[in-house]
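S.,

Sequence below, as promised.
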Amino acid sequence: MKRFSLPDLGEGLTESELVSWRVAVGDHVELNQVIAEVETAKALVELPAPTAGVVTRLHVEPGTTVLVGEALVDFAPDGETAPSPSVPEADTAEVDRPSGAVDREPVLVGYGPRTASGERPRRRARSVGDDAPAPAQTAPIAERARPRATPPVRRLARDLGVDLGTLVGTGVGGRIAREEVERAATGLSEQLPERARGAGAAPAGTREASATAADGSVRRPITGVRRRTAEAMVSSAFTAPHVTEFLTVDVTPTMSLLDALARSPRTGDHRVNILTVLAKAVCIAVRRTPAVNASWDEGAGEIVEYGHVGLGIAAATPRGLLVPNIARAEELSLFELADAVADLVRTAREGRTAPAELRGGTITISNVGVFGVDAGTPILNPGEAAIIALGAVRRQPWEFEGQVALRHVVTLSLSFDHRLIDGEQGSRFLVDLGTMLSDPAMVLTMV
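The prediction came back faster than expected:
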């Protein structure tokens, strides 16, 4: 027998939540076929099968938090015979927790390290079959059909404590809609005992559904991306000394350029907007002020200036704030950047961002202007030296060629780590960005 354990998904994450199974006991799977979805503190990840064979046991139910290295599923590889129900499966399964580069299975997401003693981690999520023979316990999982719903709707259902298996989808292809989950949650909250609707905390280790109290307040468990974001922002705010500067500029020439590009047949299907132009400007300005594209290595006592730009784009998603990044963004043309940003944001909102896309960022842009906000004081993405906030573009009276005229105006905000960047460097970088947005032709003087 072959046992597949939760692999190391990177970024130092030690646990994940099992969202759903794509297989059931008795199913035959192919190598690298997706068998489950797990949610880390950063992304929704699909797990591929490490071998071709028949599923003989599912160790955990959806909604369970699993530590790296803990058992998820057992297989009878092709060419082998599944054990008799009378034989304990834990005694026949080969535990799959490889270490290093030796004996790695050909999966897409990697593996966690084997512990020195070879024992299972001490803290273990409750497995199906702890108190009874495996066949009796795995049957409910095998019989359960996987409801059709998008990742954001699945997330909402988990947060509200709604079992999607009890709902009948009315959307396309029987897909369950957000409204159906919310209606089910309303009925569920009415059935909760009074103590669950009050202010009391849930016992340790339990998964508490959102509940509406009599005064209208709502309690939701802090999990996944929301918890990770909160921890990262607190760490960043109290570790790096933040300084924020603001620059308001006339971007009418850039808006005229965007209009011209929209009419040009060379643009094709590329969607170029002011965020794209700012992204390109950041890549150019970094060459002139490399200190903004750096990190503080406390352990080594060094400042690391990167030779490439991992351009992070802060994306608001149903699961919370994510900052995937575009690797080597400085090598991309304006049109290529437009496509990369669009794909990055769409993938993040659909919950399909790969863990690798959340690593390697060196500088970030946060587009608060899409929410109608003029400016802000963005908090640094941990490990980075600078973050730029792009405000809303507004038509307003502005001095132009000795007269007052209606112009397109935007405010740029730059927060930076004062350990790495002096005021003079931060100001020069921000002015370079403003110069390129106010007169795109000035790019020719900077490259």
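Residues 224-239 form the longest helix (16 residues).

Coffee later?
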